[in-house]
Amino acid sequence: MTSQFPQEILIEILSRLPAKSVGKCRCVSKPWKDLLSSHEFISKTHQENLILISPSHSIHTISTIQVDGFSRTLELLPHTWVTVVGSSNGLVLLVNEEEEKILVNPVTLQKVQVPDSPVALYKPGSFSMHGFGYDSSSDDYKIVTLSHFDTDNEYEPDCADTFVDVYSVRRGVWKRLDSSPYDHAVPELASGAFVNGAIHWLASSREPGYRSVIAAFDMVREAFDEIPAPSSVDVTRFVFHKLVVLGGCLCMVDSIGGDGTDVWIMKEYGVVDSWTKININGDSGLDVVKPLCYVGDGEVVFLTEDESLVVYDPKSGTFRDMIVDGVPANFLDGGIFVESLVSPVFKRSCLRAA
Known about the structure:
Layout: H1 7-14, H2 19-25, H3 30-37, H4 39-42, E1 48-53, E2 59-63, E3 71-73, E4 81-88, E5 91-96, E6 101-104, E7 111-114, E8 126-135, E9 140-149, E10 163-168, E11 173-176, E12 193-195, E13 198-204, E14 212-218, E15 223-227, E16 242-246, E17 249-254, E18 261-266, E19 275-280, E20 288-295, E21 299-304, E22 309-313, E23 318-321, E24 323-324, E25 327-328, E26 333-338
Antiparallel strand pairs: 1-2, 1-26, 2-3, 4-5, 5-6, 6-7, 8-9, 9-10, 10-11, 12-13, 13-14, 14-15, 16-17, 17-18, 18-19, 20-21, 21-22, 22-23, 24-25
């Protein structure tokens, strides 16, 4: 059958199947197995699903094919989950209350516990932020940890050095790079936003004035670049905003102003003029803090300050509760992932999550 269709046509057809059906197709022949395991095929899967942490700190997934629906509880061993760091090609990085990092495929439930870096900073007294993404040059998944000690000196940048540690999932090893050129002591220890082959954090420059910047860690070069922010935002304060991914685009959320919430979306990566703003009027009475995904006809699912999920319609400027399992949804944190059969297990030395 593979000889009857060009490979790109096969990929287009098969990428529309659920991950479990793809798993069955991989048994057809070795060429099909190779094709369906390739990064080219995996990158064609665009159907987003929500992965969320409940008030009881369990993990749930929701298909976003429908605006409202039912959740699936992931049968992971008991942990007090606190953060969804990010996802790439179907793998999701989670962090629990003990600050253990667990890499999981929500479809297959394969998981590994990522070992701590041998040069990790001791706690308490230090602060860390994590990011997760894919390095296309080495076909590897990487975890990037930014960590620093707080100097607590009002006349100096908040952190003298931000240490950059990178974990290779394929090789199972950590390495320390040169310190970041930016000051990453931000009001909230946010996870990095993985877009276009780079993990992005809000930070401050070390130049006089400490202007706000979008620092992008390139996964291939393992070096920082600076991405232009919207031209109309205040460069002295947008470090207080939030940086997330929405619909595959870099997204900045300003919810600290007095006129509602501004959601900036970078439609063309790296192009300053492509930033597009959605203004959410403060009269709604809702404090939206994190956009998660698009549903329906351009509606956006938001996580709010009071830990509820709401659906916002930009055309009418109205909100409604997102109904999950028959009731308005409440979750502590969340993110998105695509269904795939990618395994987080590359080395036997990786420890299974306990």
